[in-house]
Design goal:
By secondary structure, the chain is of the alpha+beta class. An eight-stranded antiparallel β-barrel has the order 26-27-28-29-30-31-32-33. The protein has a five-stranded parallel β-sheet with strand order 3-2-1-4-5. It is globular.
Length: 662
Amino acid sequence: MFNKILIANRGEIACRVATTARRLGIRTVAVYSEADTGARHVAFCDEAMAIGGAAAADSYLKADRIIAAAQAAGAQAIHPGYGFLSENAAFADACAAAGLVFIGPPASAIRAMGSKSAAKALMEKAGVPLVPGYHGENQDAVFLQQQADKIAYPVLLKASAGGGGKGMRIVERSEDFAAALASCQREAKNSFGDERVLVEKYLVRPRHIEIQVFADTHGHCASLFERDCSVQRRHQKVLEEAPAPGMTAERRKAMGDAAVAAARAVGYVGAGTVEFIAQQDGSFYFMEMNTRLQVEHPVTEMITGTDLVEWQLRVAAGERLPLLQQDLKIQGHAIEARVYAENPEKGFLPSTGRLQHLRMPVAAEFTREDVVRVDAGVREGDAITPYYDPMIAKLIVWGDDRAQALARMAQALARFEVVGLSTNVAFLGRLITSKPFSAAELDTGLIERHHDELFPMAMPSPLPVLALACAALILSESQASADPWSQTSGWRMNGSLTRRLSFMDATGERLLGLAYERTGVRLNTDRGTALLSDFSRTGHQLSVSVDGQALTASVVSSGDSFQIFHGGQHWSLDWSNPIAHAGEQEVGSGRLTAPMPGKIVALLVDAGAQVDKGTPLLIMEAMKMEHTINAPSQGTVTELLYAVGDQVTEGAQLLSFEHKEN
């Protein structure tokens, strides 16, 4: 076994590898960029070394700097995690040339499976069923469109060297093909340095099922069963579970055998995932092989009782697989939810900012400590930046069966508290409890097809939440001043004090009345009235008596904003402070601003262009995903304020737009 390894990655996977290595007595070396100087994984490892600028291209993708860091630290091996250089054959070769063990498959296997086109050709020779499509080298745009027309629409464009949903487009009509191809190639080149694509028939209501395989250098290769990763947004996984609901023993064996055959065909060693697209009738087709550990590997660990990172380390050190196929058994059911900094209501647009408040569920809150696990690469106070994937944490739960796992996931999500940026926590809660997911009616279009159920209209804040917001405001006022008139006792020398408050929630303005009485504060709302008394607060935990009933919740206050976590839901209310907002004027129209930090990659109109509502105006790239800015109405583009390649900050005005008067 190794004495010291370098982890050529960041975030939760770096922390995960360090945890296993520490248990095995192996020292770890973290690498970090300028943006990650104070990151959690840096503190988590035994040593840390800086490798460059904030952008991945200036740090985590610099193979020579990573290898130099490993040599300087005296490490014997490099664990690449997932993403960045984990599937880079040249990096694996460079490690070997430097006398370092690459904790992953041989470079030859990475090359064989690194190109989707080449991998499909290899699988075709091996007799593995493939989705109809074009996987060749001819990348002429006219030729590719001819192939798509021949396959028949809808078709799926996929980056040949891609993964993670990047460089992927569904094309419904022939007339949309050229624009979709250009966008796909642009994103593929930006994300992977390779703009080649393949064209496939887009299957209706398919499931995404993948098989975890593991091989050693002694000729052993095993399948650790399947994961269902069908629930996706933007072709990226949202929920993963194991085993796959509805999987028969016969189908599991057939898919497992096919995955092992694929691994053996390329002389595979280490952890890998063979991904299949499966139809509702049980037929399945090879999609690709990821020559690394997957983000969703914890659900496999949960149902098999294994530590796949430990397996990686042992196999890389020349040991045999800890368990062979006949030793592996499925126990219970596991589900993983990816908690992202993103706004589901705005097309899952990534969100950047600082984690002002972060509370995650802990194992001690459950009946058994081994039924919930949180893999996180961030801490409270850390920033989610535009440089890297906006994942906050992975939440994994286990149950004796799927129903119990679902219940535990809902319980764990209700304990997640994040303030400072948008997250998908509430969306995940709705998804877990939705009828189609609960009933295992799974396919990759589930979110889009059940959009109305998963994205209900915002509801006004209920009376208990309004009571908590008022209590938080009253307490903050009383604690900010020794003035007896600001205390919460309700006492007044002559008569009682009344005041009107205005809060803004997701549905708009909420007008409230407060009457300070001898026994408390009377709250009057359009949804009823209540007497508030017995105010107290310890940290973020706020307690108040509402009509004699004790009410406790987590309330995070920041200025005039109150973030309330109550009943498993997150409510945001902003107090309209009449003094603080005096003299403010409404900002005029005519501005189109950047929804987040990013780079301008395409200008689709010229200054002076007259456009209709919805016309694409420009394309931004942020977090390796493209976002199109469309015209908000019919009008004229009067000025373009940035050029292609320019970096823009969140909220920056991108262009001037003159609305056409009706």
